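Recall that a protein's primary structure is simply its ordered list of amino acids. Everything else, from secondary elements to tertiary packing, is in principle encoded there. The following example makes that idea concrete.
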Amino acid sequence: MSGGFTVVEPVMGTVASITVVGERTGRVERTIAACVARLRDDERVFSTYRDDSDISRLRDEGLELGDLDPRVTEVAERCRDLRERSGARFDAHWRGWFDPTGYVKGWSTDAASRAFDDLLAEGVIQAVGVNVGGDMRVRTAPTSEHVWRIGIAHPTHEGELLATVEVVDGAVATSGTFERGAHLVDPRTGVHLAGPVSATVIADDLATADAWATVAAIAGVDDLDWMPAAPVASGIVWERGRTRRFAGRVEVSAFHDALAG
């Protein structure tokens, strides 16, 4: 089996790119549709921009978690755990109400990618990658030798790569001020990060990679105190020309970025 294709669909205020390594059959198309449907249904529940979403109703109508979709309770529990483990560098309640935006996209992508379980287990496709807003959950069939090579963009040098990682089954997420400016807020102080800062995390699942990439970006290059509590495989933090890399919860190098101006 060889070849592949990519399907792009709007979802969650961004786009989902689903790349399949394998043949484009009817069964594969139906699985892609199921994957996208899950992403959009999670958006219906968690969007802070929809007045009728469960998250908006929780905020505006004073409802209890038990009154809402069970997915909200699951995500709320995971966000509470993340706040504790990150030393409050991640806090879904920093606005004064529950907003799991920094967690739920990765969590939803993980759930949606499970639509491909049977196709991968049966070897119908070699691999699949689900990219939502630049963060990727990649999976490879047990019988395949396919390896995903994922480039990490340099935060200040357009067209340059800060690093390249190879992943067989896992997730890669990046958080920072590179594309969206000073949108990150340190929940401990309420202060927006001016940057430039970028953090990329590789983990088993995208919920973990995405959330801890946010933690790493907020912490910055001088604060790796969060790392021993993070269930991540490896990563890289870049800030103002300085780069630190870690693997297995241990820093593996610290050096000046030669591309820094």
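Confidence is low (pLDDT under 50) at residues 255-261. Residues 220 and 239 are 7 Å apart (CA to CA).
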